[in-house]
Design a protein that fits this description.
The protein contains four helices and no strands. With about 80 residues, the chain is mainly α.
Length: about 80
């Protein structure tokens, strides 16, 4: 049988041998360190996303309307 230490780094082997509860506790410690060092849980803006505010908002015209105008008023 192959030992976990043979196929991955010792640090990863230690993590793989932990129970889910032990992993959860270690993860909580890492989050606390991250936040103590100034990390933030706020999402970073994704400029590639079609839902990015830069793409969804458009500047309003000076009169407050959408800036669209009617090109043709009559029927077709």
């Amino acid at each position: 049988m192959v030992e976990i230490e043979q196929i991955c780094d010792p640090e990863w082997a230690e993590w793989a041998c932990m129970t889910p509860q032990e992993r959860w506790r270690e993860t909580e410690k890492l989050w606390n360190i991250f936040l103590t060092l100034g990390g933030s849980l706020d999402p970073e803006p994704d400029t590639q996303s079609p839902f990015n505010n830069a793409f969804t908002t458009s500047p309003m015209s000076s009169n407050g309307r959408t800036g669209l105008r009617v090109v043709r008023r009559g029927g077709i």
